[in-house]
Each structure stands twice: as structure tokens, then as C-alpha cells.
Design brief:
Elements (H helix, E strand, L loop, with lengths): L5 E2 L9 H13 L4 E8 L2 E7 L9 E2 L3 H15 L23 H5 L2 H5 L18 H7 L14 H15 L3 H10 L9 E2 L13 E3 L1 H12 L3 E2 L2 E2 L3 H7 L24 E3 L3 E6 L3 E6 L4 E7 L7 H12 L13 H13 L21 E3 L9 E7 L2 E8 L2 E9 L3 E4 L6 E10 L2 E9 L3 E11 L2 E10 L8 E7 L1
Parallel strand pairs: 1-3, 16-18
Antiparallel strand pairs: 2-3, 2-12, 4-6, 5-6, 7-8, 9-10, 10-11, 11-12, 13-14, 13-22, 14-15, 15-16, 17-18, 18-19, 19-20, 20-21, 21-22
């Protein structure tokens, strides 16, 4: 058992178990697809909940939380005296520079990149066929003077990760392991996905466990110190977690308009956060000695992340007491039952076994279509089913549960997934697969049956690949 955090009931640190229940139920009411929740106060773990099929040992894609890890590595290099934040980044990569360097690129400092104030209006390698993502940072035409305005640019973070690896002579996460991650029990099998050139994806590639995030965030909340040892440079952590630049113009919601530090977001209530797409959050609140960690997949929900924050503020942060609360055994028992029951929800729909009769085991053939779909068959048997299909990648079978998630491997891609299906109405069956691997997202397939035909609508909400699951096609009984 990991002993980094001592366990305690919420009331022991001034948090009501009923308020935690309210927080979890608010997330459920908003139909947010949560994967984990961790709450730490005063160094005590008061909530640790995983939503099945996710468990404590399940690795999870953290997306842009990776940026904060890159920042920590840059801060450690600066503390060693190997770089200065005022260094022009171009001076460290002469081999990546074009023959004529744009003056805006020549002026770009490491500090500008840390605070998302590079000369680029967008990520330079996004949508580019160029395999050398770092090189694109120096060759893509910049749009404005660096160091002036906030513009979210993942290529800045990635180039900083390449800088760390170049100077440290090892992968980014290995450098952090040597410095402090191994000491605090960071997961040995955690990793950062590499780019096409083998450089760690310093802006989005971290795959780790929620508890790993909690440990790192807690040390950052403690200004780099843990158990009497200063693992991270205090002055750098103070700067990184403070507002360095305004985000009012570019923030997508009120939480993102609170400012930005060095690859850390500022939040309301004088907080700061490591934040990744889809609800990956490690939010620190120094005034409350409180940490919230969540993992989730809110990519289908445009207001998902703000709703997580709002529920946390309304149900927990605003009600925290400076003193321990009286024990509440009944509420704590209810909270434990809720934690045990937390799970990613399967699709729900009409419970009518007779609906399958008209379509079960029937094969539909598709004329040429944008999905590349050739054949499809739906096999239903009680609480289980299989979608059999053939597309441009071959013939495949996708098992699913009816009223429950079935775990497996997504066809062709082989990523772990949890899949369920349901009848939305008398003629429409829907299948949703949650990808729970190095990639994170959802694939939804709607089958609308009409006489001897089926119209298929597919939607992918996932970072890369799966292009064949995005669009429409109609097929007919063979």
C-alpha cells in the first residue's frame, strides 16, 4: 500500500462526507464521464475514488498536464545553472534553424514559451506532415512578437521537452525520476508517448496514474518540499504557479481567464492547476491546504471541465472548515458505498428483447462510402452483443454489453476499451466504446434500421486516428 498520504475521514480535516457526496452526485447529474476523484487536505487522503473499469492501478492519458511536468524539468535545469529563462530558444537548437531565421523566432526566450507567449498563434506541428515537430517551431512563419500576449501553443511545450532531453541526455520523465519522481513512488510503468522523431511529447503525452498526479501536485503545492527535502526549486515553483500573463482574451471559460504561470493555469479562489483536455485536473488551493485531482473524459461535453470546478467549489471548497468536524458515521458509510458503486455508465435505452428479432444476425452490404464500410451485422444475445463489420482495415468484431460495459480491445487499434449498446427507440440501436488506453476518447456508432436498410452514423471524439469512424453510410440487406 502506498504511504505517501495518510488516510483520514473527511470530517477529520474539516470536510463533510455529505458535501463530498453532493459533489459526486452533481457530477453524475451533469452526466459527466468521470474516471477518478482524489481529494487531499493537510496531507491527508480523504477521498480516493475510481470509476470502474478504471482502478487505482489503471494508467491514464493526462494530455496537457504533461506541460506542467515539462515546466518542472525546465525549472530544475535552470536551478542547476544549465540554462537561463532569458536564453533565446534558437541558441539551443542551431541544427533546427532555417537558413534565414525570422526575427520573432530569434527573439523568443525560454520564459516566453513557458508562459505561452511564443510568437506563434497556434501549435506549429498540428496538421503538418512534417515528422520533426521541434523543427516546425523554428520554421513555421510566426504571427506576432513573442512575450506580448497569451496564445496556447503546444509546440512551445514540446520544444521545451526536447531542450530538456538534449541537455539532460535522457528522456524527460527519466530526468524527473532521477530528480524526485522515484523518491516519491511515482509509477514505474508511467511513460510519455514519443513524437515521430522519438522526442517525448512534452505537451500532451504523459500516461500515468491519478495518484502519481496527486503526489507531484502536492509537492508543488508545498513549494517543492516534501518531508523536509526540497525536491523542486522553491523560487521557480512560486513563479511557475503565479500569474505571469493574462489569459482573459483567449480563455475558453471563466476558469481559464484567471491567468497563466509557467505551464500552470491559475484558477479562481487563488488556486493553480495542472490541466489536461477532457477533465484531467490537479488543482491546488494554498489558502485551503487542499488538492483536487480528477481524471475524466468530458470531450463530448462542451462545459464539462467548468462543471467539475463549479461542483467542487459549491459543494466542497466553499464549505471547508478550518477545524475538524464532528464524526458522521452514517454519512461516511454512504460515501463509502458511493465510492464502491462509482462506475462509467453504460448506455441506457428501451428494455425490449423483442426489438432484436427484425435485425439480428442480418448482414447489410454498403455501396462505396466515405467510411469505407463494406459489410455490417448486429448479433444480439440478451445482455451481450457483437458488432461485426468490414471496412478498409479488414473484418472486425466489437463485443459490447447491453445495460453494462464489456471490456476488451478495440478492433484494429488494439486499445483497451469498455463498450455498451442500447436501443434508443424501436428502430435505432447505439453502441458507445470508451477508449481507455494511451489514447483516450469515445467512438459512438448509431444504427438506424428502416425496412431492408440501415443507416450508420459514426462519431469519434478522440485525439488521433479512428478517421473511419466519422461520418454517414447506408447499407442494404444482402
Amino acid at each position: 500500500m502506498d504511504q505517501f498520504f495518510a488516510a483520514a475521514e473527511p470530517e477529520a480535516v474539516g470536510i463533510s462526507s455529505r458535501d463530498v457526496l453532493g459533489f459526486m452526485r452533481a457530477l453524475e447529474e451533469h452526466e459527466l464521464c468521470m474516471h477518478s476523484i482524489i481529494i487531499v487536505r493537510a496531507g491527508k487522503m480523504v477521498v480516493e475514488s475510481y470509476y470502474a473499469p478504471y482502478q487505482r492501478e489503471t494508467l491514464h492519458r493526462m494530455f496537457s498536464i504533461t506541460k506542467s511536468f515539462t515546466s518542472l524539468a525546465v525549472g530544475l535545469l535552470a536551478d542547476e545553472g544549465r540554462i537561463s529563462l532569458d536564453d533565446p530558444i534558437a541558441a539551443h537548437f542551431p541544427e533546427k534553424l532555417p537558413e534565414k531565421v525570422h526575427p520573432y523566432i530569434a527573439q523568443t526566450r525560454i520564459q516566453d514559451m513557458l508562459m505561452m507567449a511564443s510568437a506563434h498563434r497556434r501549435t506549429t506541428f498540428s496538421g503538418s506532415p512534417e515528422r520533426d515537430w521541434v523543427r516546425t517551431f523554428f520554421t513555421v512563419e510566426p504571427s506576432h512578437l513573442p512575450g506580448t500576449v497569451f496564445s496556447y501553443d503546444t509546440s512551445s511545450s514540446h520544444t521545451l521537452a526536447a531542450l530538456v532531453e538534449k541537455l539532460a541526455g535522457m528522456p524527460l520523465l527519466d530526468y524527473l525520476r532521477v530528480k524526485f519522481l522515484d523518491d516519491i513512488g511515482f509509477s514505474e510503468d508511467a511513460h510519455i508517448i514519443p513524437d515521430p522523431m522519438g522526442i517525448s511529447m512534452g505537451g500532451s503525452g504523459l500516461v500515468a496514474r491519478p495518484l502519481d498526479l496527486a503526489k507531484v501536485a502536492w509537492i508543488v503545492l508545498r513549494k517543492g518540499e516534501h518531508q523536509g527535502r526540497q525536491y523542486l526549486p522553491r523560487e521557480y515553483i512560486e513563479a511557475a504557479s503565479s500569474k505571469q500573463i493574462d489569459t482573459w482574451m483567449r480563455g475558453a471559460n471563466i476558469e481559464e481567464r484567471q491567468g497563466y504561470g509557467y505551464q500552470f493555469w491559475r484558477t479562481r479562489h487563488n488556486g493553480f492547476a495542472m490541466y489536461g483536455m477532457g477533465g484531467q485536473i490537479a488543482a491546488c488551493y494554498p489558502d485551503y491546504d487542499l488538492l483536487l485531482v480528477t481524471t475524466a473524459d468530458t470531450q463530448e461535453h462542451p462545459y464539462g471541465v467548468p462543471l467539475i470546478y463549479e461542483a467542487f467549489y459549491n459543494h466542497i471548497l466553499k464549505r471547508v472548515s478550518d477545524r475538524p468536524l464532528p464524526p458522521d458515521p452514517k454519512a461516511y458509510a454512504e460515501l463509502e458505498s458511493q465510492i464502491d458503486a462509482n462506475a462509467v455508465k453504460p448506455l441506457s435505452g428501451i428494455d425490449d428483447p423483442g426489438l432484436a428479432a427484425a435485425v439480428n444476425h442480418k448482414q447489410y452490404v454498403f455501396p462505396e462510402n466515405a467510411l469505407g464500410l463494406k459489410r455490417l451485422r448486429l448479433d444480439l444475445a440478451g445482455s451481450e452483443g457483437i458488432l461485426c463489420y468490414e471496412n478498409g482495415t479488414g473484418s472486425h468484431k466489437l463485443p459490447f454489453g447491453v445495460g453494462r460495459l464489456v471490456e476488451g480491445r478495440f478492433p484494429h487499434y488494439r486499445y483497451r476499451c469498455g463498450t455498451s449498446g442500447a436501443w434508443l427507440n424501436e428502430s435505432t440501436f447505439v453502441i458507445k466504446s470508451h477508449i481507455i488506453d494511451d489514447e483516450l476518447g469515445m467512438i459512438t456508432i448509431q444504427l438506424a434500421f428502416l425496412d431492408d436498410a440501415v443507416t450508420v452514423v459514426m462519431k469519434k471524439v478522440i485525439g488521433s486516428g479512428f478517421q473511419e469512424f466519422n461520418g454517414f453510410a447506408s447499407g442494404f440487406l444482402s
